[in-house]
TrEMBL record:
Compositionally biased intervals (Basic and acidic residues): 1-13
GO biological process, any: intracellular calcium ion homeostasis
Keywords assigned by UniProt, alphabetized: ATP-binding, Calcium, Calcium transport, Ion transport, Magnesium, Membrane, Metal-binding, Nucleotide-binding, Translocase, Transmembrane, Transmembrane helix, Transport
Similarity comment: Belongs to the cation transport ATPase (P-type) (TC 3.A.3) family.
Entry EC number(s): 7.2.2.10
Protein name (record): Calcium-transporting ATPase
Subcellular location: Endomembrane system; Membrane
Domain Cation-transporting P-type ATPase C-terminal: 920-1089
Keyword Cell membrane: no
């Protein structure tokens, strides 16, 4: 050992200081100084700063931990004890200062740390002191509590909703209209042609608009509030739980919120690690860090001594092949066979380390560890805090804001033009009176003011008509309706706007573990004997499907497999959080048990264990790469001790001298035990090829074997028994984390919809590629990259790579967030799916974040916009359909609304300019019916169309795409021109020879019928001619259509003075109805016109040509 110049216990020697160049350069990329520089904080009595301990966990920096004196240095520096934990009496006093130099020199100013107490003195269940006892500790390291999230009230949500630009525009228009209406009603008395006084109802328009704004604000805010409350109910759980701690040498239960840095905590299988820390002592500890890091493998934890020794011998393995023997710190000899262990460990995906990450789960073993970070400084806490970001505006919101600004400009411009024209006309009439002029001379100032007031009122009317009052309501109704229906499709929408955003998502960045896969290992293939091969869902004639496996197996072999799997395992049954029984243990072992119960029809493994009690158990070690259990059996009238072994396939195949015979004739004679045959070299080569074939499919392989003894072996170590050989090989099992049942179909559906699916995972590259190929998202010409390589690229290089990048493996949470930000910078609308804590930052950074409702962690749900209640990736396809349905609903209504508004504005402008008294052909009350009642009904009718299957047969719209497409402009302009021409012809030619009052009613009715039937025409915004498709599936639309027609009949026939209408006869109704129905064939003719003729000038069809190429292959 000494010839190599290092000893595994060298961490007890004085460490290098700040002038050690290698120590300084190793972590030069970090902003936290991990060298031996004493901090200058007089209020910090500890050897470490909080930032140093955070960096220690982030880097998993074994070197720094070793230099500070190892575990003893860490506990001294934190005024703790490796056996007795925090001394509560000592904490009540002023803590003496400890420095890194004290730790390096082995000095301790802390007397209580040197007291030699017996661990047997520990007393259970003693009261714990309050957190105020640890005020000095909390002042430096903080407490294990996150800052409270400020919950918004309904009033605050309403105030936020009022910040919408469209609602601001409506509110301003409503206030002006209300003020002018009240003034006019108070100062003007009007009479109809029959001499009846017209009621003063001009204030109604402004009041109705205000009412519409209030409805939008209240509905949207209450909906948001209810969704958040529903989300809170979904995640109802007791945040405060108790953990087992050691304080003052006594075991005690403390609240998770009372955990302090320096505390010693006990962990058992099934526990969630409550705070970051360092392993002190324990046995066979393995943690599942998949929720925190995305790593699907169980990560082994060990003491710092073992980790340093393992790494040191691993380094020596490059130049030495001999087995080395080292001395542990307590002087006992251990034959670690460390070279072989280190090499084997390097082949695994996760290295052994002494660091425990908060949020991970203990799979097996027990331990005591010392806490190094709590609250916002722990891994779990930092992830939670990263989720607290401000919501960003969605693509539809951005486009509606632009539209609202443009409409305001157009409305004000039209009103200004009308105001100028009418004022000029008024001046001309006053200066050059004529016989046809309505001006009465001599003029009084009151006459002039009255005339100017009428002109201003007409101009304001134009602005009010131009504003789409129903648009915000249409958006709110579409979103509210979609969220309720999406809940039935297992999509819980937390953020309403996420619905419409998802419809135009161009990229889905999906986590692998738990999202595309089931996050649980399963046996999917295997070989028993040398040629009995089985696989899941296979159609190959030489393979047995898993569904038929139990029936095809010889009975003795079936019983042997059931017995071997049940007795030779460390897994056990526990009760899950939902109250259901669940298997707890490593994923590999639970996979074997589930395989036995599901496909071999075995009874419960607990009953098999009871029937075959273990005589001796040999736990798994990295040296043997196997575990074994010996049971006592009666075979052929004699007692045998059968040792069931499972472990590394290559090793057990080498140790086997026989293998199970699967086709022995004795099985037909109802043999009681399995038949075997000799393991030939040919058979051995065949088994090695089978193992290699499984490896190419990224399957983990595990061999099952057994050996019979006449007497219970004396050896308590498995290795000598394995070295003896003589094993009988039962078979090789191929295990993987399987795809979710509908994952491949869901990915294909996304690709058909023009949505690029990318995998972003913390798992290794080979596994990621295998799963991606199975899903169909990784094909020839695509690229895969790991997180560190992606980080090293420049921004320009990353953006250039994005079109073909389909896999980002070995990625950290920051890598995932960086990818999302890069995609958004390129104009993509990004959706991210995930279930783990590590997915939180990316879920927050994305336009839409999906979390799994069953397997998802609290962090993932908190960060998400939509929760998949059934954990099914396929539900994303439904979310895309509903999102596109929401977008289509808004566009349908927008097409309908703008047609109404353009026609009404033009009619108001023309009739006001032509009229002698500068008034519009449509009165204020009639415009109220058209602009509010019709729009509100129209919003409800067009916002409740369910999604159709063909919505997934088109590409998503990019973020830069205009809200109103050229096809929509074509229909808006075409229908508006038709309506304007027809109504002006009726108004100024009077071809039917009607009185003026009847003519105005006829114009009003024709105008309304044109809108009612154009509403049917607006059900399709594509080039499809069948506007009646699916009409009867939407009961709202049919009911609203009927109500609108009946309402118009009642207004005309019985509205009288209130609506300034005269009853129409049957001929007039027929003509109005005919003109209205004609809107539908006119719409079909308009659809025949090329869209390019109406394409807005200066708009590029695609600002990202590479996106077109990227998504075109999926359409």
């Amino acid at each position: 050992m000494e010839k190599h110049g290092m000893h595994p216990d060298d961490h007890d020697q004085p460490p290098p200081y700040a002038d050690d160049a290698s120590s300084q350069t190793q972590h030069s990329s970090s902003s936290v100084d991990m060298t031996f520089l004493e901090h200058a904080d007089p209020e910090n009595p500890f050897a470490f700063t909080a930032e140093q301990l955070v960096a220690l966990m982030e880097r998993r920096d074994v070197d720094f931990l070793k230099q500070t004196g190892g575990l003893h240095g860490l506990t001294r520096g934190l005024h703790s004890h490796p056996q007795h934990g925090l001394n509560t009496a000592h904490e009540a006093q002023t803590l003496p200062r400890v420095t890194l130099y004290d730790l390096a020199d082995g000095r301790s100013q802390d007397k209580h740390l040197d007291e030699d107490e017996d661990e047997d003195d520990i007393v259970m269940d003693t009261p714990t002191p309050t957190t105020s006892t640890f005020s000095q500790r909390q002042a430096v390291f903080g407490s294990n509590v996150l800052p409270k999230v400020k919950v918004q009230s309904v009033l605050q949500l309403m105030w936020q909703a009022l910040q919408d630009r469209t609602l601001i525009l409506l509110t301003v228009a409503a206030i002006i209209s209300l003020a002018v209406g009240i003034y006019e009603d108070l100062t003007t008395v009007e009479y109809d042609v029959n001499g009846n006084r017209i009621p003063g109802v001009k204030w109604v328009e402004g009041t109705a608009i205000i009412l519409a704004v209030l409805i939008v604000v209240v509905v949207g805010s209450v909906n948001d509030y209810q969704k958040e409350q529903q989300f809170r109910k979904l995640n109802v759980k007791k945040e405060d739980r108790h953990v087992s701690a050691i304080r003052s040498g006594k075991n005690t239960a403390i609240s998770v919120h009372d955990i302090q840095v320096g505390d010693l905590l006990r962990l058992e299988p099934g526990d969630i690690v409550p705070a970051d820390g360092v392993f002190v002592h324990g046995q066979s500890l393995k943690c599942d860090e998949s929720a925190a890091t995305g790593e699907s493998n169980a990560v082994s934890k060990a003491t710092l001594d073992d980790c340093v020794a393992l790494r040191w011998f691993g380094d020596q393995a490059n130049s030495s092949a001999e087995t080395l023997v080292c001395m542990s710190s307590n002087g006992t000899s251990k034959d670690y066979q460390l070279i072989e262990s280190a090499l084997n460990q390097r082949k695994t995906d996760a290295a052994i380390d002494p660091f425990l990450i908060s949020g991970s789960r203990v799979l097996q073993g027990t331990c005591v560890y010392i806490v190094t970070a709590v609250g916002v400084r722990s891994m779990h806490g930092k992830t939670l805090m990263a989720l607290r970001t401000q919501e960003q505006s969605t693509p539809l919101q951005e486009k509606l804001d632009v539209l609202a600004g443009n409409i305001a400009k157009c409305g004000v411009s039209a009103a200004g033009l009308l105001l100028v024209i009418l004022l000029i006309r008024c001046v001309i009439n006053y200066t050059t009176p004529s016989a046809t002029s309505s001006v009465v001379f001599p003029l009084t100032p009151a006459d002039v003011i009255s005339q100017i007031t009428r002109i201003l009122i007409t101009a304001v009317t134009v602005v009010v008509v131009a504003v789409p009052e129903g648009l915000p309501l249409a958006v709110t109704l579409a979103l509210a309706y979609a969220t309720q229906r999406m809940l039935k499709d297992n999509n819980l929408v937390r953020v309403l706007s996420a619905c419409e955003t998802m419809g135009n998502a161009t990229t889905v960045c999906s986590d692998k573990t738990g999202t595309l896969t089931q996050n649980k290992m399963a046996v999917v293939a295997g070989t028993l004997g040398s040629s009995f091969r089985f696989s899941k869902d296979t159609s190959q004639p030489d393979l047995i499907d898993l569904h038929h496996l139990a029936r095809k197996l010889p009975t003795p072999v079936l019983h042997l497999l059931q017995q071997a799997i049940a007795v030779n395992t460390t897994a056990f049954e526990s009760i899950a959080a939902n109250g259901e029984p669940a298997l707890l243990g490593s994923k590999t072992e639970t996979a074997l048990i589930q395989f036995s119960q599901q496909w071999l029809h075995a009874e419960t493994f607990e009953s098999l264990r009871t029937r075959y009690p273990a005589e001796r158990v040999y736990p798994f070690t990295s040296a043997t790469k196997a575990m074994a259990t010996i049971v006592r059996l009666e075979v052929g009238g004699r007692t045998v001790y059968r040792m069931h072994v499972k472990g590394a396939s290559e090793m057990l195949v080498c140790r086997a001298t026989a293998l199970v015979s699967m086709h022995a004739p004795q099985y037909n004679e109802k043999a009681s035990d399995v038949e075997t045959r000799a393991m030939t070299e040919k058979n051995r080569m065949r088994m090695r090829k089978i193992i290699q074939s499984y490896a190419t499919r990224c399957l983990r392989t595990l061999a099952l074997a057994y050996k019979d003894f006449d007497e219970l072996p004396d050896s308590h170590d498995l290795e000598p028994l394995l070295l003896q050989g003589g094993l009988t090989l039962v078979g090789i099992m191929g295990i993987e984390d399987p795809l979710r049942p509908n994952a491949r179909k869901a990915v294909q559906a996304c690709q058909r919809a023009g949505v690029c699916v990318r995998m972003v995972t913390g798992d290794n590259m080979l596994t990621a590629k295998s799963i991606a190929r199975q899903c169909g998202m990784y094909t020839t010409g695509d690229h895969a990259l790991d997180g560190p390589s992606y980080r090293r690229l420049t921004t320009a290089e990353r953006h250039a790579l994005l079109p073909s990048l389909k896999i980002l493996a070995r990625s950290t949470p920051d890598d995932k967030r960086l990818l999302v930000e890069d995609l958004r910078q390129c104009g993509e609308i990004v959706a991210v799916t995930g279930d783990g804590t590590n997915d939180g930052p990316a879920l927050t950074a994305a336009d839409v974040g999906f979390a799994m409702g069953i397997a998802g962690t609290e962090v993932a749900k908190e960060a998400s916009h939509i929760i998949l209640m059934d954990d099914n990736f396929g539900s994303i396809v439904k979310a895309i359909s509903w999102g596109r349905c929401v977008n289509d609903s808004v566009k349908k209504f927008l097409q309908f609304q703008l047609t109404v508004n353009i026609t009404a504005v033009v009619l108001t402008l023309v009739s006001a300019m032509v009229s002698d008294d500068q008034t519009s052909v449509l009165t204020a009350v009639q415009l109220l019916w058209v602009n509010l009642i019709m729009d509100t009904f129209g919003a409800l009718a067009l916002a409740t169309d369910p999604p159709s299957p063909d919505m997934l047969d088109r590409r998503p719209e990019p973020r830069t795409a205009p809200l109103i497409s050229s096809r929509m402009w074509k229909m808006i302009i075409g229908q508006a021109v038709y309506q304007i021409l027809v109504i002006l012809a009726l108004l100024y030619t009077n071809v039917l020879g009607m009185p003026d009052t009847t003519l105005q009613t006829m114009v009003f009715t024709t105008f309304v019928f044109c809108q009612i039937f154009n509403e049917i025409n607006c059900r399709r915004i594509d080039a499809n001619y069948n506007v009646f498709a699916g009409l009867m599936r939407n009961g709202f639309f049919v009911a609203i259509f009927v109500v609108s027609v009946l309402g118009q009949v009642l207004i005309v026939q019985y509205g009288g003075a209130a609506f300034q209408t005269n009853p129409l006869d049957a001929t007039h109704w027929a003509v109005s109805l005919f003109i209205g129905v004609l809107s539908i064939p006119i719409g079909a003719l308009i659809r025949m016109i090329p869209d390019d003729l109406f394409s807005p000038s200066g708009l590029a069809l695609q600002q990202r040509p590479w996106l077109t190429a990227d998504t075109k292959s999926f359409v």
